[in-house]
Amino acid sequence: MSSPAKKRKQNDVDNSPHKTRSIVSFFKGPSVQKPKLPELQPETTEQTLSDEALARKIQAEWNQEDTSQSAATAAASNESTSADLEQSTSTSASAIPTNTTSTTTASSILPKKNTLSLQSSAGTEDSMSLMIPLDQNPQVFDMSKYVSELQAHWAGEGGDASYALLTRAFVLANATTSRTKTVDTLVNFLRILIEVDPSSLLPAVWLATNSISPPFDELELGLGGSSISKALKKIYGLDNQGLKTLYDKHGDAGDVAFEAKKRQAFTLVKPKPLKIKGVYQSLLKIATSKGSGSQEMKQRLVEKLLQDTRGAEESRYIVRTLVQNLRIGAVKTTMLIALARAFLYSKPSGASFEVRSQQEIARLKKDELVEMYGNAEEIVKASYARHPNYNDLVPCLLEIGVTEELLIRCGLALHIPLRPMLGSITRDLSDMLTKLQGRDFSCEYKYDGQRAQVHCDEKGKVSIFSRHLELMTKKYPDLVSLVPQIRGESVSSFILEGEVVAVDQATGDLQPFQTLTNRAKKNVELGAITVNVCLFSFDLMYLNGEPLLDRPFRERRELLRSLFVEIPNRFTWVKSIDATSANSETVLEFFKSATDVKCEGIMVKVLDNTIKNNGAVQELSSDNGLPGATTQPIEPAETIKPAKEKSTRRKALLSTYEPDKRLESWLKVKKDYSTSSETLDLIPVAGWHGQGRKAKWWSPILLAVRNPESGVLEAVTKCMSGFTDKFYLANKEKYAEGSPNVISRPSWVQYNGEPDVWFEPQEVWEMAFADITLSPTYPAAIGLVSEERGSQSQVPQIFESSRG
């Protein structure tokens, strides 16, 4: 009889009636039996584990950065881990009966001091700000319902206005396409700050205008996309692929932050409420961080802002602020209108200027309300145009309100650029001649250079500003050194305007704008200049302490040419002729001569504040409309026929200098699509993911021309204008990612850049263009005109497409 099979021993020490010693016990001393705690089974989800892992990771990073406690780094990391585990189990501990035999004390399950723990991010938004109807008509918006509550609410959080209120204004402005609603929202928001927290008004204005300082202050955040991406990944637990997926879907960094914040179930700590002043001060710190370690400092400030956001909307607008693209449909003019109207309704406590009561304004008739708004807006706009700095404008408004004195307190000043006057675009010469019938005007070459505003004070200090008010004194030290030579003996201080153009000093020939762009932008040394320039001056706005803006153009021009000294090929006047609409043939010849020397066209400017009406001279004022032209029809040259009048009345065309206005007293006549019959047949070969509104489409699109000798497609320009939404949609469907029409980088396309996608060449688009210039970026026709640079079509616009 065979013996029964031997039963194999199981290595199950716990269930064995005979407790055996393991090998570990031979190397350890006797252990004390600890009471067994009840096993806790917290609900573990993928999100919970992910946030917990994130908490541990960031806690460990912060511990490593704490150099003062480097010796305790390892211990701190272990404490962090155990505290996180204890925190995660304590949430379900109340559901488990208490073990009366347990000797565990309360202190063993509490988070340790100075250790991060997970906090739910639900319900952290500021409910007080959400309930305020900022988008109501200011005539019915009742401030009294919210002032005391806001004061108490903000007092509990430090006393300053919360960023949540500004976010609320952004959300409401973004949710409407009505300009009136946007203005109303900003007006009511500004009124709250004026009455409740005036100290937050200036920071709020800067934040709402996508800026932290005026352009000439040279304060820049200096944040690249990588800094913001890194912060998003770290604070919201995104990986590279997750970040890319969200960005490809939304096309906006703020929307990415919004989605990431919504998915975040927990935060490391309960966020402290962001304040308007605090956010602005953080941005200033980012902009002013210089030298060794500045990038790390900027990164930590960005991460702290994201960490302290309460709710997805705050995250969205913090990131949009960091990339300086709020996308709320409120431009500079909108803010100026809102400021003007807000100070009609509200004033800070203790201010002495008068405001109208809400009841009084509500009783105004529509035309009376429009007039009241219009007068206030004109004062604020004019002040800002002459002195574009909110750091000066907002404190003045808080002190004196919207009064005529504002134009004096915030008027023209040396070394603060005024916003330049702009010219209206005309279709062609005949359109220009029709608009200026009966007027004396000057035609000037429109040079292809960089517009410059030159300031000089009594001490000889010189500042040079661009059209966009950026300080570029260090870019043109040769012009700075020129000022003492061009200033006449009777000139002590001045502001003049002109065009900086690259010029061959030996021949005086004008160089293309691309040559000027090769010049360094900052810290140019006089001895190292390779691109020489000439300043072609055309206006004088300030002389010896006196503004000249209200003087006629003829008088300003005469002062400029009589009091300043020409230096050939370095400083001179724009080439010009004086004419009337009866001199059409002369004007045409002058226009052709301008284009022959590579100018963009001509500028036409009204000379005087008078109009010749059947031999009589009529003085114009800005308050009166101008009747339609009653002069006898002129006989223009056969090549120029005046257009027909569309209306019987026109606005008065003054010859004064009007900062920040685009008026028909200055007209641009350029080589453009209406006068050029030339087009190019180009092939779309690549595209980039669009930004903002165009996030779902390809924009811009890279276009190339075929080299008949080599067969290679040579890139010639990018195009992002002239397309309809319907065209964009069809184009994106045709060149959808993953389709056969999207290919890897082709060897037969010559372009050094890196588009997001490459297209299979199969279409020809007929493109109109303003001009063709040399370019170091595009290789088309390289070697034909220049051995180093190719050709680029300027301002391309689609004319017709032929799909293959």
TrEMBL record:
| A GO MF term | DNA ligase (ATP) activity
Keyword Signal listed = no
Q: Name one GO cellular component term.
A: nucleus
- Per the UniProt entry, the Enzyme Commission number(s) are 6.5.1.1
In residue numbers, the region (Disordered) covers 1-108
> Where in this chain does the record put each ATP-dependent DNA ligase family profile domain?
526-707
- Please name the Gene3D superfamilies in this protein's record: 3.30.1490.70, DNA ligase, ATP-dependent, N-terminal domain (1.10.3260.10), DNA ligase/mRNA capping enzyme (3.30.470.30), Nucleic acid-binding proteins (2.40.50.140)
* Organism superkingdom: Eukaryota
According to its UniProt entry, one GO biological process term is: DNA recombination
- Family annotation (NCBIfam families): dnl1 (TIGR00574)
Protein name in UniProt: DNA ligase
Taxonomically, what lineage is the organism?
Eukaryota, Fungi, Dikarya, Ascomycota, Pezizomycotina
